[in-house]
Here is the input.
Amino acid sequence: MPKITLLFASLHALLMLLLAVRVVGHRRSAKIGLGDGGDKSLAKKVRAHANFIEYVPMALILLGLLELSGLGATWLWIAGGTLLLGRVLHAVGLSRSSGVSFGRFWGILLTWASLVFMAGMGIGIALGWSLR
Here is the structure.
């Protein structure tokens, strides 16, 4: 049972719902049914949610496959924790600013770092390298 992945997937699901609720709440209060209606604040919220959706599914698939392949728990915690921290930082950063910000920069950097790490470990395990 991939319990580490289950935990991180569950935490990411809660973050995804939080981002979605922010979009829906803004849509309702601004009476915007589709798109962003030119509302810059809504556009930022939509992008924060969309960016999450663009990165997290593949990352969680990788994390789960690595766990099922027997990668050590320490590596899984590092990868999952880095991903979650990156996603939180990015969501906060993008929600506050559409320009360059600490949260957006470090959020995407940590997200990419976790993806590169997990992809590298996955390639290594698939090729039979002893990485455990």
